[in-house]
Each structure stands twice: as C-alpha cells, then as structure tokens.
Amino acid sequence: MSGTLRDLLSQFRTLDNVELAAIAATDGLLIESTAKAGVDVDAICAVASNGLAMAEALGREINKGGAVQTVLEYDQGLILLEPISGDAMLLIMTSSRDQLGRLRYMAQANRSGFVAALAAI
C-alpha cells in the first residue's frame, strides 16, 4: 500500500521548490517519502516530529485544541506539518515560501487519500 502513499506524495513534488514530501509517524519514524537527492529524510522526519509535538502542546496550553496544521517559515523555505491521524503526520519541505497557499490546499484536498492509505497498511 506504500505505493499509494508514494503516489499521493509525488503530487507535492511536482511543484517547484518542494524538496521533500513525507508521511512520518508522530514519533519521527519515516513511513514513506519522495525527496530531492541529498535530502536526509530520516533526520528531518525525526526533528520535525518535535515541531508538531510543540504545536500540539501549545494548543492544549492555550485551550485552542489540537494542531490542524503547523507551518514553520524560514528565510530559505518552509516546513508544513499536518497530523493525518493520531499516529502519523504529513511533512512538506520547500526551498521557497512562494507556494504556501497551494501546499495548504493540496494537503487538505489529499487528506482523505492519506487517511485511507494509512488505514490499509
């Protein structure tokens, strides 16, 4: 079933500047990915899980609920993190901040596909 996940993730890589599209367990272990050559996918997933955990903890502390989506913007790109289930998250890494709206739309539009593909594993 990882082929289905890979197909869904590959849609993100068709966008300019998307360097990594991955599904990772919330503990940081890689489930499936597609990435530009030279990207250390395992290391990024491991660290990104801490970013999602921080967003979740902040939401609980300020009584706003769980994180729906977390966007970390940097000078040379961004990371988009979105919980897909209680056990998995979507991670997108780009080298530009230009297509944030498109990425957010694609994450939402493909959410049910990710949920179904993960349930089949």
Protein architecture, described:
With 121 residues, the chain is of the alpha+beta class. The chain has a single domain, classed as Dynein light chain 2a, cytoplasmic (Beta-Lactamase, 2-Layer Sandwich), CATH 3.30.450.30. The protein is 44% helix and 27% strand. It has a 5-stranded antiparallel beta sheet with strand order 2-1-5-4-3, with helices on both faces. Helix 1 runs antiparallel to helix 3. The model has no long low-confidence stretch (mean pLDDT 93).
Write the layout of secondary structure elements.
Layout: H1 2-13, E1 18-25, E2 30-35, H2 41-61, E3 70-74, E4 77-83, E5 88-94, H3 100-119
Antiparallel strand pairs: 1-2, 1-5, 3-4, 4-5
Helix pairs in contact: 1-3
